[in-house]
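Limitations

Structures in this collection are predictions, not experimental determinations, and the ligand pose is part of the prediction. Treat each record accordingly. The example that follows, with flavin-adenine dinucleotide as the small molecule, is included so readers can see exactly what is and is not provided: the inputs are given verbatim, and the output is the predicted complex.
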Amino acid sequence: MKILVCISHVPDTTSKINFTDGDSKFDTNGVQFVINPNDEFGLTRAMWFKEKQGASVDVVNVGGAETEPTLRKALAIGADSAIRVNTEATDGFSVAKQLAKVVNDGGYDLVIAGRESIDYNGAMVPGMLAGMTGANYVTNCIGLEVDGTTVKAVREIDGGKETVNTSLPLIIGGQKGLVEESDLRIPNMRGIMMARKKPLKVIEPIEASAETKSVSFEKPAPKGAVKLVDADNIDELVSLLHNEAKVI
Amino acid sequence: MSILVYTESENGKLKKAALEVVSYAKAVADQMGTSVTAVAVNADNVESLGNYGASKVLLVKDDSLKDFNAKKYATVVAEAAKNEAAKVVVVSSSADSKYLAPLLAVNLEAGYVSNVIAAPSNVEPFTVKRSAFTNKAFANVEITTDVKIVGLSNNSYGLVESGGNASVEDFSPSIPESGVSVESVDKATDKVSIADAEIVVSGGRGLKGPENWGMIEELADVLGAATACSKPVSDLGWRPHSEHVGQTGKPVASNLYIAVGISGAIQHLAGINSSKVKVVINTDAEAPFFKAADYGVVGDAFEVVPQLIEKLKAFKASNA
Ligand SMILES: Cc1cc2nc3c(=O)[nH]c(=O)nc-3n(C[C@@H](O)[C@H](O)[C@H](O)COP(=O)(O)OP(=O)(O)OC[C@H]3O[C@@H](n4cnc5c(N)ncnc54)[C@H](O)[C@@H]3O)c2cc1C
Ligand SMILES: Cc1cc2nc3c(=O)[nH]c(=O)nc-3n(C[C@H](O)[C@H](O)[C@H](O)COP(=O)(O)OP(=O)(O)OC[C@H]3O[C@@H](n4cnc5c(N)ncnc54)[C@H](O)[C@@H]3O)c2cc1C
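Predicted complex:
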C-alpha cells in the first residue's frame, strides 16, 4: 500500500496571532511552526500501516522553503520520503489542485490528510482532493482499518459516530481518535539523524489559480471585564443570565 | 438566477441550522435582488421554510438517500444549483455539510469559504467575513469565481422570520453510485449534540474524577444543554473523546457556554470563543478563563453547581 500523508505547516497552538502590512498578512514574527495536530494523528496511523502492513509512507506539503523543517520532522517521525510543491499556499482549492497532481503521479492508494488545519480552518483540502481525483472520501475519521483494498472507517458525526465500508483508493480527513494521544510519535535522536539522509524532493507547481482571496484580517474586539457573582448569591447569576444576557 | 440553500433534516425534521441558513440566504438574496430556493432531502413540513425567506423548495424523496452520503448529497445539491442557475449556494457548518461542501465546490467549480459569520459586506466583489486561526481572528475573504459557496458558522446569524410562503416542487436528480456505505450509526438520540446545542455545559480537570460528572449532567439536563469537556478530561478517559472541545477538539459556538473547573488555556479558549456568553466557575480567581468570560463565580464547583441547579429549577418552575 502506498500512503501519502498531507502535512499542513501551522502556527503552534500557543501562538499569538497578529497581522502586518495594513492587516493584510499573517505576521510570522516569533511564531513557531508545527505539523498541524490533525496531521500528526494521521502520520502516526500511517506509521502503524508501515510497521504492521509494510506500507510505504510519503509526506507532502504545498508551501515555500520555510516549511522544510516541518517536513523533516515528519521524516524523523518515520516517513520514507518527502515532497514539497514549491509554491505559496494561498487557498484550499489551489492547494488541492497541486496535491491532486502529486496523488495522480504517485499512484497513491491511501491519502491521509487532516480534518482541518488549525490556521485557516478551511476543512476543505481533502474533500476537494477527493472531488478532483475521484477517490473515495471519509472525513472526521477516527478509525481506519485496511485489509487488501477493503476499508472500514469510523466517522465522527454530530452527536455520535458511524462506521462505513469503503475501498481504496481513499482519501481521509483524520483527527484525534485515529490513534490515541499517548501513542503520538515524537522524533527521537536516531530518527532525526536518519531524517537528514532521507529524500526531500522539491517539485515545481502546476498552473492552479486560487478561487478565494483573503483581503484583510481583523482581531476580535477586546472583551469587557468579567462580571463576578458571589458564590453565595447564585440567584444573581440566574437573574443576569435571564435579564441581562438573555440566554436562559 | 437565485440563491440556493441546502437545508438539513434528521429523521424528517428540519434542523435549526436549516432555518438559520435560509434566514441568511434571504439576506444575501435581498442584497443581490433575487430569491431563495431551498433543497431538502426526505424532509417533512418543508413549507415552513417560507417563513424564513425561501420562495421555493425542491424536495427530494428517495430511499437511496436514507443515510447521509457526501457524494450523493453533493450531487443532489449541485444538480439543484445548476437547475436554478444559482450564483450563491449556502450550507451550514454541521459535520455533514462540511463533508459535502468541498465536493460540491469541485462539482460546481465554485469558490468555497467556510466558517462565515456575517452577511456579505459586499456582493461585487463578493466578500464575506469568516473566522480563522480557530477564532483568534477574522478574515475578510473575496470569492472570485462565478458561482460561490458560503459555509455559515452555526449560531452566527440567527433565525429571522420574514413571514413568506414557499412553493414545494418534487425534485428527482440522478444519484451517482458511491464507494462509501454506512454500516452502522452509534448516536445517543436522547442527547443534544454539541454542534446543535444552544447551551453547552463543560467540565475540566477541576472536577477531580469521572464520578463527579453527575452534577454536570444534571445541570445540562435542567438547561437542555449538551455536555462537553476539556482535553485532559477526555485524554484521561473520564469522558468520551467526542466531548472534547477546543482548538484540537470540537468547536463550540453556542449562545451560552458554562465552564466548570476549566483553567482557560489558550487552546481551550480558541475553540469555544465564538460562544456568545461565557460563564466560568473556578476556585482560582487567577485562572485565565476569567479574562475570557462574561460572568464568573470564584468558588468550589462542588458547592456552586448544586446551588445553580437548584436555583435554575426554581427559575424554570416560576417561569413555566
Ligand atoms: C502567506 C500566506 C497566505 C495565505 N492566505 C490564505 C488565504 O488567503 N486563504 C486561505 O484559505 N488560506 C491561506 N493560506 C493558507 C494556506 O496555507 C492553506 O494551506 C490552505 O489555504 C489550506 O488551508 P485550509 O485551512 O483550507 O486547509 P484544510 O482544508 O483545513 O486542511 C485540511 C488538511 O489538508 C491538508 N493540507 C492543507 N493545506 C496543506 C498544504 N499547504 N500542504 C499540504 N497539505 C495541506 C492537511 O492534511 C490538512 O490537515 C495562506 C498561507 C500563507 C503562507
Ligand atoms: C497542541 C495542544 C493542543 C491542545 N488542545 C486543547 C483543546 O483542544 N482543548 C482543551 O481543553 N485543551 C487543549 N490543550 C490543553 C490545554 O493546554 C490545557 O492543558 C487544558 O485545557 C487544561 O484543562 P483543564 O482546564 O481541564 O485543566 P487544568 O488546567 O488542570 O485546570 C483545572 C482548573 O480547575 C480549577 N479547580 C480545581 N478544583 C476546583 C473546584 N473544586 N471547583 C472549581 N474549580 C476547580 C483549577 O483552579 C484550575 O483552574 C492543548 C494543548 C496542546 C499542547
